[in-house]
């Protein structure tokens, strides 16, 4: 099994890059940490109107549909964050890791030839570690158009600097210097001893330029 994962903020280009890779690889599957979370949210917070059903029926929601507000008062993005991170990860930080490994194992048994798994939603340090322990590689994209402060959007900020600065975590500057969890994040990175395999600055790239840079990086590193 080969495994390529993309990490970044919302609308940083993660899904776009993965879709481009998918079009280039003969035997591959897209597997995301949040796949089962989305199924759960859709099951219990079903689309209440025909208008919604036309926009969020797909297994992978579009960015536009995630902004739709459910009658409970939360957008679908907020529901995913609250249920997936605040509730489920709050109960057990490894819950989506174990689920991902289980589903990856099933995929590998389904393919007689070597499979490439592509993942577009690496958001936490233990998810980076999971990918790398499975023999995969994680690319971090730097585009950040929104500045969302939810934990699922900021948990890898320090690792981003950790990777860019050569792994010296104590010299890193967190994205939010007033974050009460800063020292805890530093200790976590020190203990895990992990960083991104590559950081790609796509802030001034258009989509074709970004996709080209990603595939060239992967070829240069001989990850596929």
From TrEMBL:
Lineage of the species this protein comes from: unclassified sequences, metagenomes, ecological metagenomes
Organism: marine sediment metagenome
Protein name listed in UniProt: Deoxynucleotide monophosphate kinase
């Amino acid at each position: 099994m080969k495994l390529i994962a993309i990490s970044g903020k919302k609308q940083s280009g993660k899904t776009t890059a993965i879709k481009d890779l998918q079009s280039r690889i003969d035997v591959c599957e897209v597997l995301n940490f949040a796949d089962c979370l989305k199924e759960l949210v859709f099951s219990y917070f079903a689309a209440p109107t025909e208008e919604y059903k036309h926009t969020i029926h797909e297994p992978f929601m579009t960015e536009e549909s995630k902004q739709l507000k459910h009658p409970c008062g939360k957008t679908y993005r907020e529901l995913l964050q609250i249920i997936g991170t605040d509730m489920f990860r709050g109960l057990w930080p490894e819950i989506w890791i174990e689920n991902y490994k289980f589903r990856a194992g099933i995929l590998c048994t389904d393919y007689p030839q070597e499979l490439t798994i592509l993942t577009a939603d690496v958001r936490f340090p233990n998810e980076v570690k999971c990918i790398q322990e499975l023999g995969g590689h994680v690319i971090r994209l730097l585009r950040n158009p929104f500045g969302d402060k939810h934990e699922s959007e900021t948990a890898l900020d320090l690792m981003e600097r950790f990777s860019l600065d050569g792994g010296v975590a104590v010299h890193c500057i967190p994205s939010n210097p007033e974050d009460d969890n800063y020292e805890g994040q530093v200790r976590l990175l020190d203990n895990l001893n992990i960083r991104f395999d590559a950081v790609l600055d796509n802030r001034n790239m258009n989509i074709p330029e970004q996709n080209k840079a990603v595939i060239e990086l992967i070829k240069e590193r001989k990850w596929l």
